[in-house]
Write a structure and sequence with these properties.
Mean pLDDT: 86
Shape: globular
Low-confidence stretches: none
Structural class: mainly alpha
Strand content: under 5%
Order of helices and strands: HHH
Oligomer: single chain
Length: 61
C-alpha cells in the first residue's frame, strides 16, 4: 500500500516530502480501519492520502 500510494501522489505532482507525509497518514488510516469492501482498501487509503496532501500543500510543508 505504501509504495502504491506514494507513487500515485508523486505522479499527481506532489513533492516528495508531502507525498511521504501523506503516505504515513494513509498507512495510519489503513491500520485504524476495519475491513472495507473487497478491493477498496487501496482506493480508500489513496483518497485519504490525497486529502491530506492537498491540505499539506496549501500549508507549504
Amino acid at each position: 500500500i505504501e509504495a502504491n500510494v506514494k507513487a500515485e501522489l508523486l505522479k499527481l505532482g506532489f513533492s516528495l516530502s508531502v507525498a511521504s507525509l501523506a503516505t504515513s497518514e494513509a498507512i495510519r488510516y489503513y491500520r485504524k480501519q476495519p475491513a472495507s469492501k473487497r478491493g477498496k482498501m487501496i482506493a480508500d487509503c489513496l483518497n485519504q492520502a490525497k486529502r491530506w496532501a492537498k491540505r499539506a500543500a496549501k500549508n507549504k510543508y
